[in-house]
Amino acid sequence: MTSPTSATATDRAALPTRARTRLASGAGVSIALAVASVATSAGAAHADEPYVVRQGDTVSQIALRSGVSVGAIARASALADASRIRIGQVLTIPTTGTTTATLVSNTFAGRTYSDLVVAAANANKATLLRIGVPTTSQMRATIVTTATSMGVDPALALAIAYQESGFNHTAVSAANAIGTMQVIPSSGEWASQMVGRPLNLLDPNDNVVAGVAILRSLVRTSPDLATAIAGYYQGAASVQRNGMYPDTRRYVASVQTLMSRFR
């Protein structure tokens, strides 16, 4: 991409985003209540949406994907304990009378994203702007420290982060790729499994851990560095299936140039 605020590709979801499997049928699960996205009232009239809980779901993950708060889902679904849900349970995702300010458009690089994804992106962008984030210099230092501790080349992590967001943690794409490392929620769930704890993509430190964990896995499983970089942008499964798209090749070239700058 030519801009440091590039979005992750649609096929990023093709990464092996294996969700946590602690949630057994009929059993409760402890939820790590992450900072959730917040909707602002605008008088829109839409029906609330039902959601059937699936294996690996948590209320915080559902909230992040839907662009509403954990508390809003708990209230709409009459949950006595928002830390316990079960497979097959029907939750209510509230939409009546709420919408979000348009901070993120619904298109990027010729791709148009669904209203639900874009609403979540706008809500997450609004949350990051509201809570405040570290400076770009602070984010750069966090990336170096995290990459070093996780055995990933800091120059690679810095180059990816700069290409994705310019080290701006308020960056959110139309695909709902969040923060400095531009990680979508499904990939965040996979990263959570890899590091062995829930990661909140709105949290600057967790966001970097998620991105670096994904990079580490891609480097370990790809035949070469260029393919690993392409997998971060396009999705590893898509690269394997389709080869690199033209925009992916430009992304890889830019990241490799940036790596030289950050050494």
UniProtKB/TrEMBL annotation:
SMART domains reported for this sequence: LysM (SM00257)
A Pfam family: LysM
Domain LysM stretches: 49-93
CDD domains according to UniProt: LysM
InterPro entries named in the record: LysM (IPR018392), LysM_dom_sf (IPR036779), Lysozyme-like_dom_sf (IPR023346), Transglycosylase_SLT_dom_1 (IPR008258)
PANTHER family: MEMBRANE-BOUND LYTIC MUREIN TRANSGLYCOSYLASE C, SOLUBLE LYTIC MUREIN TRANSGLYCOSYLASE-RELATED
Name used for this protein in its record: Membrane-bound lytic murein transglycosylase C
Native organism: mine drainage metagenome
Gene, per the UniProt record: mltC_10
